[in-house]
Amino acid sequence: MPENINTTTLNTESLASSFQALLKKANLGEDAIAYIQVATFSIIAIILAKVGHYFAKKYLVKTIERVMEKTKSQYDDFYVKRKLIKRAALLVPAIIIYAFIDIIFTPYPTIYTILNSTISSYFIIVILLMVDSFLKATQDIYDTQPYGKDRPIKGYVQGIQLMITLVGILIIVSIIFDIKLTAIFTGLGAIAAVLILVFKDTILGFVASIQLSANNMVKPGDWIVMPSRNTDGSVLEITLNTVKIQNWDKTISTVPTYALVSESFTNWKGMEESGGRRIKRSINIDMKSVKFCSPEMISKYKKVKFLQDYIEDKLDELDEYNKQFDIDESSAINGRNLTNLGIFRKYLESYLRHHPKIHKGMTFLVRHLQPNEKGLPIEIYVFSNDQAWANYESIQADIFDHILAVLPEFGLSVFQFPTEQNVQNAYMSE
Question: Which of 37, 138, 282, 423 could pair with 379 in a Cys bridge, judged by C-beta atoms 3.0 to 4.6 Å apart?
Answer without folding.
Answer: 282
